[in-house]
Amino acid sequence: MKYFVTGGSGFVGSNMTDRLLSLGHEVVAYDNLSTGQKKFLSSAESNSHFRFIQGDILDSHDLTTAMSGCDFVFHFAANADIRDNLKHPEFVFEQNARGTLNVLEAMRANGIKSIAFSSTGSVYGEPDVFPTPETAPYPVQTSLYAASKDFGEGMIESYCNGYGFTGYIFRFVSLLGERYPHGHVFDFVKSLLRDPEHLRILGNGHQKKSYLYIQDCIDAIMLCVNTFGNDETTHIFNLGADEYCEVRDSAKWISERMNLSPEFEFTGGIRGWTGDSPFIWLDTKRIRALGWKNKLSIRQAVERTVDYLLSHKWLLEAR
Length: 319
Hints:
Elements: E1 2-6, H1 11-22, E2 26-31, E3 50-54, H2 60-66, E4 72-75, H3 89-110, E5 114-120, H4 144-163, E6 166-172, E7 174-176, H5 184-194, E8 198-201, E9 208-209, E10 211-213, H6 214-228, E11 234-239, E12 245-246, H7 247-257, E13 263-266, E14 279-280, H8 285-288, H9 298-311, H10 313-318
Parallel strand pairs: 1-2, 1-4, 2-3, 4-5, 5-6, 6-11, 7-10, 8-13, 9-14
Antiparallel strand pairs: 9-12
Helix pairs in contact: 2-3, 3-4, 5-7, 7-9
């Protein structure tokens, strides 16, 4: 197979690229390098089955040309700056909504009919049911990021119904692990390196979150793709651990992993910022019914992420 990976030099995209190459596939990674890191593709670039193309999914012509000859698209390119998305709503729409439409149209122009899409558990807003299943009713959206991902999901479902596409929609919790480039673990590690005695935490620290190790996530994605193939329908899966933790628990684990005992300062309130859901925990029975199980617990994923960041401090400075 020849796979096209948007956001190919990003956190999820580069890890997926390495996995596909390890399985003997060809990969074209497409990325504008606005947030991705070319260093993440250092091992891939030594593989004769790999090609990197610097380009933007908002450039329809270049995107369509780059995608020529591919069989399947992994669409991971997105603006994932959830915390600050209210500062630039048009940019969020362009990158996540318009960009997804461009990807689908480039696929149609090239006769490619299979796509896997990285959505988010945030599309459920602030639900009443925990763990939250894929069939949960949609509430009012609480973040522009989630709303833009919801748009992408709807377009993919429409293309599956209208053009015979096969769509895989994965609603992730926050991912952790190697090449992790942003989020609370990143912020806490960077802050503690600056000031080992003090850590400022947004909210009251009781926000409940579920997380998932990146390789467990990729295991789940590949299992779905290999199970259902090209069946001209839409498959929606929640991906996450079958547990959750509080933010203050994670802060404690991070501090202990760094051999520190800082004083925690909480800014207060039930959420860290506008659009931050105070409780995210997804029901993953659907993916587990296929035989998938996450190998790392949330604490293990947090600790592995801390270890990676401490041994790759250049990434802390790059973002």
